[in-house]
From TrEMBL:
<feature type="compositionally biased region" description="Basic and acidic residues">
    <location>
        <begin position="690"/>
        <end position="701"/>
    </location>
</feature>
<feature type="region of interest" description="Disordered">
    <location>
        <begin position="678"/>
        <end position="755"/>
    </location>
</feature>
<dbReference type="GO" id="GO:0060005">
    <property type="term" value="P:vestibular reflex"/>
</dbReference>
<dbReference type="GO" id="GO:0005886">
    <property type="term" value="C:plasma membrane"/>
</dbReference>
<keyword id="KW-1133">Transmembrane helix</keyword>
<keyword id="KW-0812">Transmembrane</keyword>
<protein>
    <recommendedName>
        <fullName>Transmembrane channel-like protein</fullName>
    </recommendedName>
</protein>
<dbReference type="GO" id="GO:0008381">
    <property type="term" value="F:mechanosensitive monoatomic ion channel activity"/>
</dbReference>
<dbReference type="InterPro" id="IPR038900">
    <property type="entry name" value="TMC"/>
</dbReference>
<feature type="transmembrane region" description="Helical">
    <location>
        <begin position="284"/>
        <end position="305"/>
    </location>
</feature>
<feature type="transmembrane region" description="Helical">
    <location>
        <begin position="550"/>
        <end position="571"/>
    </location>
</feature>
<feature type="transmembrane region" description="Helical">
    <location>
        <begin position="501"/>
        <end position="521"/>
    </location>
</feature>
<feature type="transmembrane region" description="Helical">
    <location>
        <begin position="117"/>
        <end position="138"/>
    </location>
</feature>
<dbReference type="InterPro" id="IPR012496">
    <property type="entry name" value="TMC_dom"/>
</dbReference>
<comment type="similarity">
    <text>Belongs to the TMC family.</text>
</comment>
<feature type="transmembrane region" description="Helical">
    <location>
        <begin position="192"/>
        <end position="210"/>
    </location>
</feature>
<dbReference type="GO" id="GO:0050910">
    <property type="term" value="P:detection of mechanical stimulus involved in sensory perception of sound"/>
</dbReference>
Length: 755
């Protein structure tokens, strides 16, 4: 093969490769695309390996083959990675039928499941498993043994459901862990690990939330022209022609329909006209009613907690009196969101804005209830701390009495008495375990109420509407009760509130993270089934925000508010004297100073003491605040610059569009003027000129008076008109020829199209 043929063949191969890469952009029918793609691939496969020269031909063919293999591997790996995203197909199915607003809840749920899975790995890998494998076994010390008075009922179902009995003295709660500085042959420092995991839980969560918010803000930037030709883009570019599955096609069809509904709602809200004074009055009234509801719910929680403290001294309690606090908090979370939604009808906001207001109000409700619960709970903790000192003195006195009685009975002061049975040792209140039990009971109660609400409020309602509609007095689907809608605000705030309880309670109950992982895992399947089987799309479907940062903002706020009571506990309250990894310490953070003094060089202790000096901490905090303010100012400046650039680009596009429109209109006016001029074809044809008279016509001299030139305005204007003279030229010269004949359709605006 000659060099010219090789070059031509290589050029053809490159053209075929370009065709393969740009085949999707060709305005061809699908059948023609497939034919051209198949032919191009066959041509490339046939001739690409023959383009090497001499000995390098095989090496070139090998490189081409490996390049193809690598491209195929990348494509398969990308498909595999997409397939490994948990519940992606379920979420896409929900989005296609219920819109992006409902799907955003399930995306948020999946994200929280991933974060809690990492927290579960930290807690169980660094706290629970080391204690189980290397710590003392159950029954060896009092904190790991059920008291003798509680052993007869320690396995009762009612006791276990209250997380007492064997549950209370297990790895689920703080009090089970020993205070030995090192355990096992690895000399694992369990108290230090417990504290670091408790602090690291908040640190990791804060890092992940802020990183996700930054990523979402970058994704949600969008281009400036996203609102232009919305319906045209949706009409002509929404369908995916590579879909080959009928079920996927049905989901895509439903998704396109839902997106049209979302855009129609946005357009209607933009064009809505309202009475501004009446609207302001109704919104003020709605906020007043909701504020009264929030205050009443907070007072009810405080009253119930105080009442439960009175119940603690009684033994003959009913099931309701034992679980009154958990039931009241769960019922408030169940009743108040629909009440807020009913009151919010007075405001008549856009659905997206109404959802944010609803989320904020329910968030305020949950947060107020949670902090009211915490304040009342810490009052109970202070009471237990006062009791603890007396119990500690009593336990010391009981131990001395035991040894004294043993010596007196045996009349032997030299032998060592056997240790007291762990189940007979006097126990302190262990307020950390009590707090952990309350958080676990709240979490489990919330799970039960949520699942029962879905089962009764959605599934049973849908069954009644579906099967009794044919024999009822009115249309159950169109009227009352109808099918339920998915409550986005209530479910989102339920997740956020539950996560706040996990963050606060995980320090006192390490097993709470595992319970939450199981809850999120079951919620994904249970709620996906419920929303597809029992709910209908919202009457006013709306698009979710691209960034989805409103949910993350609420989560960041609840994270900060959850950090405060834990830090207060670590830095202020003394730990229990007979349970937990920090027993025997004055404050929980003393374990850090103990590790620095015993395990690190002396200069490290001095360095940490200098670093903990308030004279260095306060300037460092001020410096960070100033840095954050500076970066925020720079970010705002960049944002404003981007907006200005977008406006300039939009103005440039508008000017270009106007220029093209003006050019088209000018051409149309010139064409209309040409049509209005006398048509050359209407004039009588001039006689054919003789050959000898074809030279240029002679100009007759004009007689003028001496000293005067030709008066063009007078002499030329008075000249007789020449019917055969050429008309003014209004277009570039072209070949001469007979003009179009007269006939119909030669009126205004229907001339020859401009060249």
């Amino acid at each position: 093969m000659s060099e010219g043929e090789m070059a031509r063949l290589m050029e053809e191969v490159e053209e075929k490769k370009k065709l393969i890469g740009t085949i999707r952009n060709k305005p061809w029918r699908m059948k023609r695309r497939l034919v051209q793609l198949r032919e191009a691939q066959q041509f490339v496969d046939k001739f690409e390996g023959a383009l090497g020269k001499g000995k390098g031909r095989k090496w070139y063919a090998y490189k081409v083959m490996m390049t193809k293999k690598w491209i195929k591997f990348q494509r398969d790996f990308e498909n595999f990675r997409t397939a490994c995203i948990p519940w992606e197909r379920k979420i896409k199915e929900v989005e296609s039928h219920f819109g992006s607003s409902v799907a955003s809840y399930f995306i948020f749920l999946r994200w929280m499941y991933g974060m809690n899975l990492v927290l579960f790995g930290f807690t169980f890998g660094l706290v629970v498993i080391p204690e189980v494998l290397m710590g003392l076994p159950y029954g060896s010390i009092p904190r790991k043994t059920v008291p003798r008075a509680e052993q007869p009922t320690a396995q009762d179902y009612s006791v276990l459901m209250d997380f007492n009995g064997y549950c209370k003295y297990s790895v689920l709660f703080y009090g089970y862990y020993n205070n030995q500085r090192t355990i096992g042959v690895l000399k694992f420092r369990l108290p230090l690990s417990y504290l670091m995991v408790g602090i690291g839980t908040f640190g990791y969560s804060l890092m992940v939330v802020i990183r996700t918010m930054a990523k979402n803000a970058d994704v949600g930037g969008g281009d400036g022209g996203e609102g232009e030709f919305t319906f045209a883009w949706k009409m002509f570019t929404s369908w995916d022609y590579l879909i080959g599955n009928s079920e996927t096609a049905d989901n895509k069809f439903a998704s396109i329909t839902t997106s049209f509904k979302e855009s129609i709602v946005d357009e209607q809200e933009n064009q809505k006209d309202e009475n501004i004074h009446l609207r302001r009055f109704l919104r003020v009234l709605a906020n007043f009613l909701i504020t009264c509801s929030l205050g009443g719910s907070g007072y009810l929680i405080y009253f119930v907690v105080k009442r439960s403290q009175d119940f603690a001294s009684r033994d003959d309690l009913s099931w309701y009196e034992k679980n009154e606090l958990e039931l009241i908090m769960s019922l408030l979370g169940l009743v108040c969101p629909p009440l807020f939604e009913t009151i919010a009808e007075l405001e008549d906001y856009h659905p997206r804005i109404a959802l944010k207001w609803q989320l904020g109000r329910i968030f305020a409700l949950f947060l107020g209830n949670l902090y009211t619960f915490l304040f009342a709970l810490f009052d109970e903790v202070n009471t237990k701390l006062e009791e603890e000192q007396a119990i500690q003195n009593a336990s010391i006195w009981a131990m001395k009495e035991y040894y004294a009685n043993y010596t007196r009975l045996l009349n032997d002061s030299e032998s060592t008495p056997p240790p007291m049975d762990p189940s007979d040792v006097i126990r302190g209140p262990c307020w950390e375990t009590a707090v952990g039990i309350e958080f676990v009971k709240l979490t489990v109660s919330d799970i039960q109420v949520t699942y029962l609400t879905i089962l009764i409020g959605d599934f049973a309602r849908a069954v009644i509407v579906r099967f009794l509609n044919y024999c009822w007095c009115w249309d159950l689907e169109a009227g009352f009760p109808s099918y339920g809608e998915f409550d986005i605000s209530g479910n989102v705030l339920g997740l956020v509130f539950n996560q706040g309880m996990i963050w606060m309670g995980a320090f006192y109950a390490p097993g709470l993270v595992g319970i939450n992982v199981l809850r999120l895992l079951s919620s994904m399947y249970y709620q996906c089934w419920a929303v597809m089987a029992t709910n209908v799309p919202h009457e006013r479907v709306f698009k979710a925000s691209k960034s989805n940062n409103f949910y993350m903002g609420l989560l960041l706020l609840i994270l900060f508010l959850s950090l405060l009571p834990v830090v207060y506990t670590i830095m202020t309250l003394p730990p229990s004297f007979d349970c937990g990894p920090f027993s025997g310490k004055v404050k929980m953070f003393d374990v850090i100073m103990e590790t620095i003094d015993l395990d690190l060089p002396a200069f490290m202790g001095t360095l940490f003491s200098y670093a903990a000096n308030p004279g260095l901490i306060i300037p460092a905090v001020l410096l960070m605040v100033l840095a954050i303010y500076y970066l925020n100012s720079v970010s705002e400046a960049y944002k404003n610059s981007n907006l200005e650039l977008k406006k300039k680009m939009q103005m440039a596009r508008d000017e270009e569009k106007n220029r093209r429109n003006n050019m088209d209109s000018t051409n149309q006016v010139m064409k209309d003027l040409e049509d209005l001029m006398p048509n050359q074809s209407l004039a009588p044809p001039a006689p054919p000129p003789e050959p000898e008279k074809t030279p240029e016509p002679e100009t007759k001299p004009v007689k003028t008076k001496p000293g005067k030139g030709v008066n063009l305005q007078k002499d030329v204007a008075l000249a007789s008109p020449n019917p055969g003279a050429q008309r003014p030229v209004s277009r570039p010269p072209g070949p001469r020829g007979q003009g179009p004949g007269a006939g119909p359709g030669r009126g205004r605006g229907r001339g020859v199209p401009p060249r």
